[in-house]
Design goal:
Layout (H helix, E strand, L loop, with lengths): L2 H30 L4 H21 L4 H12 L2 H29 L4
Helix pairs in contact: 1-2, 1-4, 2-4, 3-4
């Protein structure tokens, strides 16, 4: 498989897993403290969305440095790759959030 496509797919699923897994575990934890799970899951999903994206693209500022340095030098291929990886991570985080919203629909 193409290594760039593989990284994009992995970034998608990392972001998806952070949002979905974190929200599900927050829902389980809310049962232990006698709070409504759906409300906690929805709040957690929206709060984890940006952190899921950060975790998917590497957890640091490095992707932005790659974009900046290559763009200034006129190398647009690495810039487009990094933007595509960020978009795949965002798509995964957004899909995870929407799945939690769908699961909690009518419960809040």
């Amino acid at each position: 498989m193409n290594p760039l496509l593989a990284k994009a797919i992995i970034d998608f699923f990392i972001a998806f897993g952070v949002v979905f897994g974190g929200s599900m575990l927050a829902g389980i934890g809310s049962v232990f403290v006698l709070m409504p799970p759906a409300a906690i899951m929805l709040k957690t999903a929206s709060q984890l969305k940006i952190w899921a994206l950060v975790a998917a693209v590497g957890g640091s500022i490095d992707p932005l440095r790659v974009i900046e340095s290559n763009f200034m030098e006129g190398h647009l291929s690495p810039v487009a790759q990094q933007i595509a990886f960020i978009m795949c991570g965002f798509l995964g985080a957004h899909l995870g959030t929407e799945l939690i919203r769908w699961m909690c629909r009518g419960a809040v």
